[in-house]
From TrEMBL, chain B:
Belongs to the ABC transporter superfamily. It is a peripheral membrane protein. The lineage of its organism: Bacteria, Bacillati, Bacillota, Bacilli, Bacillales. Keywords: ATP-binding, Cell membrane, Membrane, Nucleotide-binding, Transport. This is Dipeptide/oligopeptide/nickel ABC transporter ATP-binding protein. PANTHER family: DIPEPTIDE TRANSPORT ATP-BINDING PROTEIN DPPD (PTHR43297:SF2), OLIGOPEPTIDE TRANSPORT ATP-BINDING PROTEIN APPD (PTHR43297).
From TrEMBL, chain C:
It comes from Paenibacillus helianthi. Keywords: ATP-binding, Nucleotide-binding, Transport. Belongs to the ABC transporter superfamily. It comes from the Bacteria. Pfam families: ABC_tran, oligo_HPY. Residues 6-256 form the ABC transporter domain. This is Peptide ABC transporter substrate-binding protein. InterPro entries: AAA+_ATPase (IPR003593), ABC_transp_ATP-bind (IPR050319), ABC_transporter-like_ATP-bd (IPR003439), ABC_transporter-like_CS (IPR017871), Oligopep_ABC_C (IPR013563), P-loop_NTPase (IPR027417). NCBIfam families: oligo_HPY. SUPFAM superfamilies: P-loop containing nucleoside triphosphate hydrolases.
Length: 307, 327, 321
């Protein structure tokens, strides 16, 4: 037996140096996926541009200058100006701050609600499971877009202050999004419960809290990260749609959605394309990049992909 | 005896995330007519990949047959166009797998699945095929063949399904039957039935069998000729009696000694130390060297070639290369 | 004789068979049907049977991973199935389970050292600074190296993972280890290593094993007493030498003769059984083995044979003995 373990040691010494870390391994695999890395790059650029860019801009987003109405892109205003003479580039960047913040915040909120409720339902089952999942089912049976429209219309009806609307839009999006996440976390919990290592945890006599926080949740996290990432893209889109219809964040606060609103006007649509193309492209690039990155993450983190 | 199949220098590689793996590395052997050849080895030694390569089941982009020749009854299987290969596969070479459940279509009746190759390869019409299918089910020792033909795979036990797989395999009177761990998933009493049946078919039909297994007991019962594989290489081959009574390669010796035998209890089992080497970290050496008790300096730096020893056995081991050991 | 470590009396475990939308119970699978066995401290009892014989369910019901239907399981005099969940949790470290599949029995996201040491910490059996020392000791006893402590399960081969599983059980100093087919998923050369590890650990720590396996040669190697199960019932129990040299039940004889022996051209008498193992949901009447028994007579179909002592502690359930 001694010779035995010595031999095992010998054989393994070659690979001994590599310190093992699941995070580092995943990162290594992710780096191999060029498309996902590119997607991540685009997302990072967007964030940098939107949050730092405005500081370098000589213009402010709400400064009205009637002498510069609807100017086409030129050297002073790289993307032109709008009907009130505001610099489009600055506004796109400012709008990006709002849109990205709304996307990120509503994602965090819906992941928090979804993961918590899903974990409770999946781990404790019984009554808690029934109540939570029936509420989730109910929310999922109502098509989310009309639901958001109704919420938005109600906000307008109640004359909610414009600067509060952003936060309320975040909340709305989270309410619509958490059931899907909760359902997924619950399913994952249910299948993990049946895994043999959970039986091993029972045999070892581990406490419930340890089983939940050391064994179940860490196995849900990778999937949660993937879902959360993809969720940001969806939230940005929904916010844009709402704002486009004038039911989300209201001007003068700029968002990509309410900037595209310009395309609603036939003359602007035809004659002033610089008004709506930049925010449109921003939404398009950001959402595509997030989705590509999310898919890459899924390939790396989803256990089904592993041998 | 005539050679039915002659494999020369077969190499199969797989592309994994961590790099290229030579799963089968310059493997050569022959299967003679009416002979049972067993390939024995542990998981990852390349025995199943050898079978898959013969059947043309190694597919890009996961892996490919990188070199060598597989000569079957005078035809080169590797250079063959897909249509001709398809005609040979299932007709002249049949294969059965470890998991009968996963190799049968779950939504098709048993009878239809037996009839399919009969209609494709032997050009029987539906009625003839059905009659032949019933006959085959009876042949593999299943009672109530009519009823079984009309049932679905999930309604039968593992042993029954493996019988059905054998029925499908022998339906076109193949010259070669490749059986990849056919009894590993079955209970011993069922295994005994299946092995008996395979022996009977071989004796009556004159077909050759290439049996792939990790179980030395099964090898001793079935084989005429044995090939021992380790890390993608053939390390020893020879007639079954010679190989079991007088193994040459330290790995074969260790394998034989480490298997507990019913009725021959020892205080402590012999065990080969260590693990099978990682296929990604193979260096030019004898792949067994770090587990070998008789390891020589030369074993760490150069790979031994398979060499014929007295008695017709072949082994790839520096212990038998007297001239070179002292280099 | 001292007090038995484990006493199983007339244990039964039936699983309901349900059907239709309303989950009506239409029948029962008698996975374990009246099993009794005792295990002395430091002894190794082997439980042998084919798939569907209920041998794994016996192990799991003893550990109360599943609730019993009837009968009694006494561990050190305490009835496991009447303990409260807290009492049971505190008793668990004393009886451990080794799983068949070393791949699925370890949490892929927990480092090996944490997996082995966490139960000690969770039960407050040692302090935080002591735990690393004890984990290293346990790893060493199971033939693993110190640097394995910070690795993840997927970095190990099957044999090494089984060693980790054993180290995880061993660190708790259990009095009983139930090993459910612990070597069936391993290669021959690795099997021998693990079997030797089991006997070495028993010599040094003196725990008792309930060793569940379908492989007679493995059981013969490790166990001093052996029980043979068929369709949820015990058909024969005897000491190792008795069972292997003078088996009484036709099923035991058939099993012994069906194991392939690695000696080519060996002529031996063989009892090849007809047909398949019947479904445990619908077992045959009388002696459950009569449908496959080459010696069956009329009485076997009608009457269930009594499990009785055929002399010298060799128990058998057969009309013909």
């Amino acid at each position: 037996m001694e010779a035995n373990s010595r031999m095992t040691g010998l054989h393994e010494s070659r690979v001994q140096r590599q310190k093992s870390s699941l995070f580092r391994q995943s990162l290594k695999r992710l780096m191999k996926n060029k498309l996902a890395v590119a997607g991540f790059g685009v997302v990072v650029c967007m964030f940098v541009l939107c949050f730092i860019g405005p500081f370098f801009s000589p213009y402010t987003d709400n400064k009205i200058n009637m002498t510069l109405m609807n100017k086409a892109p030129n050297l002073q205003h790289l993307l032109g100006t709008d009907a009130l003479g505001r610099d489009i580039l600055t506004r796109v960047m400012q709008a990006g701050r709002i849109s990205l913040t709304v996307g990120l915040a509503s994602m965090l909120l819906s992941v928090f609600i979804g993961a918590l409720l899903g974990a409770i339902a999946g781990y404790y089952r019984g009554i808690a499971d029934q109540v939570i999942m029936r509420i989730a089912d109910l929310l999922m049976t109502i098509p989310s877009l009309p639901l958001l429209f109704i919420f938005g219309a109600l906000l307008s009806e109640w004359k909610v202050r414009a600067d509060y609307r952003m936060y309320i839009v975040m909340l709305m999006l989270s309410i619509v999004n958490w059931p899907g996440l909760a359902r997924m976390v619950r399913g994952q919990m249910l299948s993990l419960r049946e895994r043999e290592f959970m039986q091993a945890a029972v045999v070892l006599g581990l406490r419930d809290s340890r089983k939940l926080f050391h064994h179940l949740l860490p196995n849900v996290v990778p999937l949660l990260i993937v879902m959360a990432t993809l969720n940001i893209g969806g939230a940005i889109l929904s916010e844009s749609v709402l704002s486009f219809f004038g039911l989300g964040v209201m001007p003068p606060t700029p968002t990509w959605g309410n900037m595209i609103d310009a395309a609603n006007n036939m003359i602007d649509f035809q004659d002033h394309p610089w008004l709506w193309i930049p925010p449109g492209l921003s939404i398009f690039a950001t959402v595509i990049a997030i989705n590509i990155f999310g898919d890459g993450l899924r390939d790396v983190l989803d256990p089904k992909q592993k041998r | 005896m005539k050679h039915l199949m002659n494999i020369e220098g077969l190499s199969t590689v797989f592309y994994t995330e961590e790099g290229k793996v030579a799963a089968v590395d310059h493997v050569s052997f022959q299967v003679r007519e009416g002979e049972t050849v067993c390939i024995v080895g542990e998981s990852g030694c390349g025995k199943s990949v050898t079978a898959m390569s013969i059947m043309g089941l190694v597919e890009a982009p996961g892996g490919k047959v990188a070199g060598g020749k597989i000569d079957f009854a005078g035809e080169d299987l590797l250079g063959m166009d897909p249509n001709t290969l398809r005609a040979i596969r299932g007709n002249e070479i049949a294969m059965i797998f470890q998991e009968p459940m996963s190799s049968l279509n779950p939504v098709m009746k048993i009878g239809e699945q037996i009839m399919e190759p009969l209609m494709v390869h032997l050009k029987l019409n539906k009625k003839q095929a059905r009659l032949r299918a019933i006959e085959l089910i009876t042949q593999v020792g299943i009672a109530r063949p009519d009823q079984i033909a009309d049932s679905y795979p999930h309604e039968l036990s593992g042993g029954m399904l493996q019988r059905i797989m054998i029925a499908i395999a022998i339906s076109c009177n193949p010259k070669l039957l490749i059986a990849d761990e056919p009894t590993t998933a079955l209970d011993v009493t069922i295994q005994a039935q299946i092995l008996d049946m395979l022996r009977e078919f071989k004796a009556s039909g004159g077909m050759s069998i290439l049996l792939i297994t990790h179980d030395l007991g099964v090898v001793a019962e079935m084989a005429d000729y044995v090939i021992v594989m380790y890390s993608g290489k053939v390390v020893e081959e020879g007639g079954v009696v010679e190989l079991f009574n007088n193994p040459k390669h330290p790995y074969t010796k260790g394998l034989l000694k480490s298997k507990p035998v019913v009725g021959q209890r020892l205080e402590e089992l012999y065990s080969i130390p260590g693990q099978v080497p990682n296929p990604l970290e193979l260096e030019p050496s004898c792949y067994f060297h770090d587990r070998c008790e008789q390891c020589l300096p030369v074993c760490r730096s150069r790979q031994p070639q398979l060499k014929e020893l007295d008695g017709g056995q072949k082994a790839a081991c520096w212990l038998y290369e007297e001239a070179e050991v002292h280099v | 004789m001292s007090e038995a470590l484990l006493e199983v009396n007339h244990l039964k475990k039936y699983f309901p068979v349900t059907e239709g939308l309303l989950n009506r119970t239409v029948g029962q699978v008698k996975a374990v049907d009246d099993i009794s066995l005792t295990l002395q401290p430091g002894e190794t009892f082997g439980l042998v049977g084919e798939s569907g014989s209920g041998k794994s369910t016996v192990g799991r019901t003893i550990l109360r991973l599943t609730e019993k239907t009837a009968g009694e399981v006494k561990f050190k005099g305490q009835d496991i199935h009447s303990l409260s969940s807290v009492e049971l949790r505190l008793l668990r470290p004393q009886m451990q389970l080794i799983f068949q599949d070393p791949y699925s029995a370890l949490n892929p996201r927990v480092r090996v050292g944490d997996a082995i040491g966490e139960a000690l910490l969770d039960h407050g059996l040692c302090s935080r600074h002591e735990v690393r020392e004890l984990v290293l000791e346990s790893l060493d006893a199971c033939g693993l190296s110190a640097y394995h402590i910070d690795r993840f399960p997927h970095e190990f081969s099957g044999g090494q993972r089984q060693r980790i599983g054993i180290a995880r059980a061993l660190i708790l100093n259990p009095d009983l280890i139930i090993a459910d087919e612990p070597v069936s998923a391993l290669d021959v050369s690795i099997q021998a290593q693990i079997i030797n590890l089991f006997s070495k650990l028993q010599r040094s720590k003196g725990m008792a094993y309930l060793f569940i396996s379908h492989d007679l040669s493995v059981v013969e190697h490790l166990c001093s007493r052996i029980g043979v199960m068929y369709l949820g019932s015990m058909v024969e129990t005897a000491s190792r030498d008795e069972l292997f040299h003078s088996p009484l039940h036709p099923y035991t004889k058939a099993l012994l003769s069906a194991v392939p022996v690695p000696i080519p051209r060996l002529k031996r008498e063989r009892i090849v059984l007809k047909g398949d193992i019947p479904s445990p949901a619908n077992p045959p009447s009388g002696c459950k083995f009569h449908t496959r028994c080459p010696f069956a007579v009329e009485v076997c179909k009608a009457q269930t044979p009594v499990f009785r002592d055929a002399g010298g502690g060799h128990f058998v359930a057969c009309h013909l003995v």
